[in-house]
Design brief:
Layout: H1 3-21, H2 23-27, H3 30-50, H4 53-76, H5 82-95, H6 98-101, H7 109-122, H8 138-150, H9 159-178, H10 184-201, H11 206-230, H12 240-255
Helix pairs in contact: 1-4, 3-4, 8-10, 9-10, 11-12
């Protein structure tokens, strides 16, 4: 047997054992696993950004376990089993890749994406945006919305047009802030949306970019705290200019 199939069969057999014999695993439901799956997904995302391949391997395993777990519970409810799940995704991939499994021609990534969205509409989707989960974090959701509409041709022609839109939204936001208007929040959202659009044109994933900036800030701030502790300094006894001295020291140390 293919080693991959052997490994997958082992996981399925272990899942059967756990569901039957382990009090914790036996107690779980689709709902109780949901928040754990979300947590595991974020841990997977962290491992990807950290480029930690050993950690990534483990996190992928955790996600696969959850998928097998959901399928096991569904099979107990006579809804579907892991075989149905795997056949369903295989059928979907074959159907949505007619340039591989049919006679459709798609020579570029953009053509593939456009065909994908058109096929989804033919399958009964009432909107191009129907597949965007409502519970996605706002930054990720904005990216997915923009990618979706791009797939049917609703997009800017070039990045210069998008940059003009960013500047337009920045000025509108500033105008509302200066006027102390209630619309400042709305304009800030428009500004963020346009920046995310520009990032897409530049090939930058905004979620990854912001995550890296968050991590960089945390590392610098925690290093600053260490430097202050070494000199018996305290936030309560310093002004911003004095804190900034430690901040710059932390930046230089982490750069070296």
């Amino acid at each position: 047997m293919d080693k991959r199939l052997e490994a997958f069969e082992r996981l399925l057999n272990i899942m059967d054992d756990l569901r039957e014999k382990c009090p914790w695993d036996r107690k779980q439901t689709l709902e109780s696993l949901r928040h754990l799956t979300i947590e595991e997904t974020y841990e997977l995302a962290d491992a990807i950004l950290a480029k930690d391949m050993d950690e990534l391997k483990g996190e992928i395993g955790d996600i696969m376990l959850h998928m097998v777990f959901y399928s096991k519970i569904a099979s107990e409810q006579k809804a579907f089993d892991i075989t149905d799940v795997l056949h369903a995704i295989c059928d979907k991939l074959v159907h949505r890749h007619p340039h591989i499994y049919g006679d459709t021609v798609a020579d570029s990534e953009e053509e593939v994406k456009a065909n994908w969205e058109k096929l989804k509409l033919k399958e009964g989707k009432t909107s191009v945006l129907e597949g965007v989960p409502a519970s996605l974090p706002a930054l990720v959701k904005a990216s997915r919305i923009q990618e979706k509409v791009k797939g049917v041709g609703f997009d800017w022609d070039n990045k210069d047009q998008v940059w003009d839109k960013v500047n337009e939204e920045l000025q509108e936001f500033k105008d509302e802030v200066d006027a102390q208007s209630d619309r400042a929040e709305e304009e800030f959202g428009d500004l963020l949306f346009s920046l995310i659009n520009y990032a897409r044109f530049m090939g930058i994933n905004p979620e990854n970019a912001l995550s890296k900036t968050n991590n960089k800030f945390v590392q610098r701030f925690q290093k600053m705290e260490i430097l202050m502790k070494e000199e018996n300094a305290n936030f309560n006894d310093m002004n911003l200019e004095e804190m900034d001295i430690y901040w710059e020291k932390a930046k230089q140390i982490l750069k070296s």
